[in-house]
């Protein structure tokens, strides 16, 4: 009986001595300071208001990136298919007036090119000289430039997001780490269990910045290549219109020569 009492007394004394140590009290404080939820949502909920604003902004930028990708992809596919269909009409040995009638009720890029060339033919009174060809070329260049600006609308946002999102995320990380060090100073401890949650919350901002920036850069490069291919189609359409104009000019000269005979 006395032996058990002695062991129990020693255990109680040792426990009391350990509780009086500074490290034990700091460990209890560290355990109290630890957040209960270290999931991404939990870290967002416990982050500073500035870091939260950065995260929300980066999430919105990522949403804009995917929205632009979806809208421009659908638009490019539709306009590219229509341009190829219109260019197929030029492959036949037809007149400019016939092509213009076939696309009279349309407002796509190739139809705009045809309408512009037909309008210049009307204004020139059917005179197919070198000046007429130069005026046609100038009109076609203007239409190509306008259609190229229209199809590229919205892609500049992707370039901006891709260039700035990592730095915005880095700003949120720096701000969060500063708050973490301020918390360390207030807790009077450098225990990793206290430091890690605040740093993890800060690094989450950098991760969101990369999540927003990397797809934006990839999508921007993909859309740039697709837009360049679409511009090449418009260039082909302009060349085909010039060929039609040249053929009509040669036919007009041939008819004049036969009439003179």
TrEMBL record:
One of its GO terms (biological process) is protein import. Keywords: Cell inner membrane, Cell membrane, Membrane, Protein transport, Signal, Transmembrane, Transmembrane helix, Transport. GO terms for molecular function: transmembrane transporter activity. It comes from the Bacteria. It is found in: Cell inner membrane; Membrane. It is a multi-pass membrane protein. GO terms for cellular component: plasma membrane. Residues 1-27 form the signal peptide. Residues 112-229 form the MotA/TolQ/ExbB proton channel domain. Its main location: membrane. The chain crosses the membrane at residues 51-71, 157-182, 202-221, 228-246. Involved in the TonB-dependent energy-dependent transport of various receptor-bound substrates. Protects ExbD from proteolytic degradation and functionally stabilizes TonB. The accessory proteins ExbB and ExbD seem to form a complex with TonB. Belongs to the exbB/tolQ family. This is Biopolymer transport protein ExbB. It comes from Bradyrhizobium uaiense. The lineage of its organism: Bacteria, Pseudomonadati, Pseudomonadota, Alphaproteobacteria, Hyphomicrobiales.
């Amino acid at each position: 009986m006395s032996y058990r009492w002695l062991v129990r007394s020693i255990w109680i004394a040792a426990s009391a001595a350990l509780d009086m140590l500074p490290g034990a009290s700091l460990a209890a404080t560290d355990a109290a300071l630890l957040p209960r939820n270290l999931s991404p949502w939990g870290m967002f909920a416990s982050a500073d208001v500035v870091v939260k604003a950065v995260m929300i902004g980066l999430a919105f930028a990522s949403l804009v990136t995917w929205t632009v990708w979806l809208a421009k992809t659908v638009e490019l596919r539709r306009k590219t298919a229509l341009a190829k269909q219109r260019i197929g009409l030029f492959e036949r040995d037809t007149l400019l007036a016939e092509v213009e009638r076939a696309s009279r009720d349309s407002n796509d890029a190739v139809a705009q090119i045809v309408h512009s060339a037909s309008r210049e033919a009307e204004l020139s009174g059917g005179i197919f000289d070198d000046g007429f060809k130069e005026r046609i070329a100038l009109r076609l260049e203007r239409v190509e430039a306008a259609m190229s600006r229209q199809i590229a609308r919205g892609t500049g946002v992707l370039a901006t997001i891709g260039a700035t999102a990592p730095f915005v995320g880095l700003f949120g990380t720096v701000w969060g780490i500063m708050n973490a060090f301020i918390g360390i100073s207030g807790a009077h401890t450098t225990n990793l269990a206290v430091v890690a949650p605040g740093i993890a919350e800060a690094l989450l901002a950098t991760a969101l910045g990369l999540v927003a920036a990397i797809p934006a850069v990839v999508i921007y490069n993909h859309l740039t290549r697709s837009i360049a291919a679409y511009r090449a189609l418009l260039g082909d359409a302009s060349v085909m219109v010039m060929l039609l104009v040249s053929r009509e000019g040669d036919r007009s000269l041939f008819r004049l020569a036969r009439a003179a005979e």
